[in-house]
Specification:
The chain is of the alpha/beta class. It has 13 helices and eight strands. Helix 10 packs parallel to helix 11.
Length: 276
């Protein structure tokens, strides 16, 4: 029976008439800031890692972007086609303060400006950004100029990443990848292996270690890597979350995820990203 038929059959004594009340509202659960994230459909770890780094009073809204499991340059380039639509469904009524595309390699392949333009097209109310923009900002805030880079990517992606980082003004002393094409498998690389891999490529003359990829479990061992290396370590998720929170005005220090989370955000670093 349809709703209209049910209502038609209700007698006058059965019709509910609620009392008029003055409802009280507050700023809601996420009263400090709201963040939106566009995560790949193959990502096994992104959501959990994001929620680990969200302080009280800050909301994280997440949507998925369909992608092929093979993490190749050609497949990464296809992400741009669904970017605006994905951004548009990130709580459009609640208006997130920041919307971020959560893919390091995809940000590089498609280009920061192009990705941010598509996010802005889908979510004009939000400040658009990309994961790799946060990483660049984080490395600059740590005053790291000479870096080593560990990735799970194919070398065709590593080559593009090395060029990108050098264009941003970093001296890439070494970049080493695991040549894994399977995006789902990246989420199953053991954290202890990631730790040992990152430390194996460290150099005395490196200012920082960058472990690239938001789809691997670097966050689990980031503090261990930093303590062992005795230098700053940036991983994709940590750099992105630090940057997104700071962009939204959230400056909380979060312990256990490297010295980066003890630092405030500097507007000049963001300006450098646009100029890089």
């Amino acid at each position: 029976m349809s709703n209209s038929n049910v209502m038609a059959q209700a007698s006058s004594s059965e019709i509910v008439r609620s009392a008029i009340r003055k409802v009280q509202y507050d700023e809601g659960t996420h009263w400090r800031a709201k963040l939106g994230f566009i995560i790949l459909s193959t990502d096994l770890v992104g959501e959990e890692n994001i929620f680990r780094l969200v302080p009280e009073g800050v909301g994280a809204s997440i949507t998925r972007l369909r992608t092929e499991n093979d993490c190749t340059v050609a497949n990464l380039a296809l992400h741009i086609d669904g970017m605006a639509e994905a951004a548009s469904i990130l709580q459009p009524e609640a208006h997130p303060d920041v919307v971020c595309y959560v893919c390091t390699s995809g940000s590089i392949v498609n280009g920061e400006d192009r990705v941010m333009a598509e996010i802005k097209r889908g979510a004009p109310w939000a400040q658009p950004t990309t994961l790799v923009s946060g990483v660049v900002n984080a490395l600059r805030r740590l005053e790291a100029r000479r870096i080593v880079v560990a990735t799970p990517y194919l070398d065709e992606v590593n080559t593009m990443e090395a060029v990108f980082l050098r264009q941003k003004g970093f001296e890439v002393l070494d970049i080493q990848g695991l040549n894994i094409e399977d995006g789902e498998a990246m989420g199953r690389i053991s954290p202890s292996y990631i730790r040992d891999f990152a430390l194996s490529i460290d150099r005395d003359d490196a200012d920082a270690i960058f472990v690239s990829c938001g789809g691997i479990r670097t966050l689990d061992v980031l503090q261990e890597i930093e303590d062992a290396a005795q230098k700053p370590v940036v991983c994709s998720t940590q750099g992105m979350m630090w940057d997104c929170l700071r962009r939204a005005g959230i400056t909380d220090a979060i312990d256990g995820y490297g010295r980066l989370f003890q630092l405030d955000w500097i507007d000049e670093s963001a300006a450098n990203i646009a100029q890089g």
